[in-house]
Write a structure and sequence with these properties.
Elements lengths: L5 H31 L6 H27 L2 H27 L2 H13 L5 H8 L26 H38 L13
Helix pairs in contact: 1-2, 1-6, 2-3, 3-6, 4-6
Amino acid sequence: MVCGGFTCSKNSLCALNILYVMVSLLMIGIAAWGKWFGLISSFQVVGGIIGVGTFLFLVALIGLIGALKHHQVLLFFYMIILFMVFVVQLSVSCACLSINKEQQERLLEVGWNNSQSIHSDVEKTLDCCGFSFVDLNGSCDAACFPGASCSTCKARIQEHAEEVLRFVGGVGLFFSFTEVLGVWLTHRYRNQKDPRANPSAFL
């Protein structure tokens, strides 16, 4: 059977969804591991990562069941959801890759001001205090604080922000193209007839 046939489409779609299942379980596992070892203390961050991982897992499960059973309704909803995820992910990836330094600084400051719960994690991980200035009369969880040798978190974050944005944008762009492949495979697979349902077609 040629690669454009029913079986090849089914196997390709199953393989793609197995990949998504593995990625989703990896995301959930990393979040749980980070919380267990105290690397992440914020329940919002852990909950967000686990939420995204669970959503991806459920979408992949719908696609996998739909592919195995050749279920038209499941495949249709899978295709629609995957296309919407593609649009959002492509937009976010392009934004990450095109953002300039001034925009980075504004976004970092807004993010810092709106995420009080993760300040402690950032300060401990990056060994810094405060965002744009170090308040020696305040409190800080960084190891450098007792010796008053801390730099600001803004400086530390900016050292890695561009690399992180490029990495996130690149990975997101790569996965957005796998989603396009998934939508195309699903559309083609839905319109193919199951040879088992009509064996006389091969006589």
